[in-house]
Amino acid sequence: MTACIVGWSHLPFGKREGEDVESMIVKVAADAVADAGFEPADVDAVYVGHFGGAFSPQAFTASLVFQASDGFRFKPATRVENACATGSSAVHQGVDFIEAKRGRVVLVVGVEKMTDLKGPAVGEALLTASYLKEEAGIEGGFAGVFGQITQTYFQRYGDQSDALARIAAKNHKNGVSNPYAQIRKDLGYEFCRNISDKNPLVAGPLRRTDCSLVSDGAAALVLTDVETALGRPKAVAFRARAHVNDFLPMSKRDVIQFEGCTQAWGQALGAAGLSLDDLSFVETHDCFTIAELIEYEAMGLAKPGQGHRVIEEGLTQKDGKLPVNPSGGLKAKGHPIGATGVSMHVLTAMQLRGEAGEMQVANAKLGGVFNMGGVAVANLVSILEPIR
To answer: Are 81 and 50 within 8 A, CB to CB?
Structure first.
């Protein structure tokens, strides 16, 4: 272990009226540093995960953290962008800084303001995370991309609409207990399974309940080296981590295998000297329910085409063998792109500290995080454990 999370802050996700990227950054930055027991002047570096794209006219955002306090002035601050894996990429950059012994305290902020865009413009903005030379014409934006992936999966392995509805229902049930979630309502399997006016088809076989939410939000955490962390009231260490990128064009790979996800999990678990059986829970990237289904297979819970058995047998329920998305995942929590990966790390740290309230997984000792950008293009895994 080389770095630890020693403090954090998390805004509720959703449509945050009257707020912008700057105000959300300022709030979580100040609160996270205070939660860690530091002053802004103690921070050695700042990383801001912010996808931006067409969502924010203010693209240069790293120094907006300084609006929280003059104490941040003259610190190195960097904006990180890696599609939907932006937040975890910023976290890993912070860990890199500490591993390189360039400093001992790092602030990482993830933020996105998405709801200012409407309708098709959201899909177009998200589609920039695909390979535009080949995929720009896909109808329905990024939902259309995953609609095609779902159709391909169904053609190869049969209609798995039941499994997708079970995943959606599981995550919405979990989201009821998450005070930061955009939707805190147990929708139930029947609602998620059936097409209706309130749950229409969105892209291919994907229903509205199969798609994560357009959200605003921010989260932040403070990282330190292990020696410093041992003097803090709480510390959650990185047991291991991995970052794997795959080809951007979907045409160059089998898009329903998520091979980059497999590689990242294999590298992280290998470095940690662990197996999946050792983990207490996982927060995984369910931007669409088909993604969580394929991730079951990619991480090794099931063979290709057999992911439906994982959810049918209850293995990933909160009281199952390996709870997946006890927070409700992106499906219930929302998916403000730059904030998502930071949020996943914060919520995992809360679980491992026994501070997750009604979300709490019993006897949580080791937590896994998988955050991806694009269609399993950027793949980041973190394995966390508490040391204080």
So the answer is: yes
Instruction: Determine the pLDDT at residue 50.
Output: 98
Active-site residue (options: 84, 192, 211, 287): 84
Strand (E) or helix (H) holding 338: helix 337-352
pLDDT of residue 388: 85
- Is residue 192 part of the annotated active site? The answer reads no
Q: What is the length of the chain?
A: 388
Catalytic-residue membership of 211: no
- Which residue, chain included where needed, has tokens 């289904």? 293
pLDDT of residue 2: 87
Nearest to 325 by CA among 106, 174, 108: 174
DSSP lists the bridge partners of residue 48 as 79, 109
pTM across the whole model: 0.98
Task: HSE, CB side, 13 Å, CA atoms: give it for residue 61.
Answer: 30
Q: Which long-range contacts (CB under 8 A, 24 or more apart) does 182-187 make?
A: 182/12, 182/13, 182/14, 182/213, 182/215, 182/332, 182/333, 182/334, 183/213, 183/328, 183/332, 183/334, 184/332
At what angle are helices 289-299 and 161-175 packed, to 10 degrees?
A: 100
pLDDT of residue 314: 98
Longest Cα–Cα distance in the chain: 58
Domains recognised in the chain with CATH numbers = 4-117+214-229 (3.40.47.10)
**SS3 (DSSP) at 288:** strand
* Phi and psi at residue 48, to the nearest 5°: -115, 115
User: How far apart are the C-alpha atoms of 314 and 47, rounded to whole Å?
Assistant: 38
Q: Can you give the pLDDT at residue 141?
A: 84
The segments of the chain whose pLDDT lies below 70 read none
Position 224 scores a pLDDT of: 98
Cα–Cα distances in Å, from 31 out to 8, 23, 89, 216, 346? 7, 12, 21, 18, 13
What confidence score (pLDDT) does residue 124 get?
85
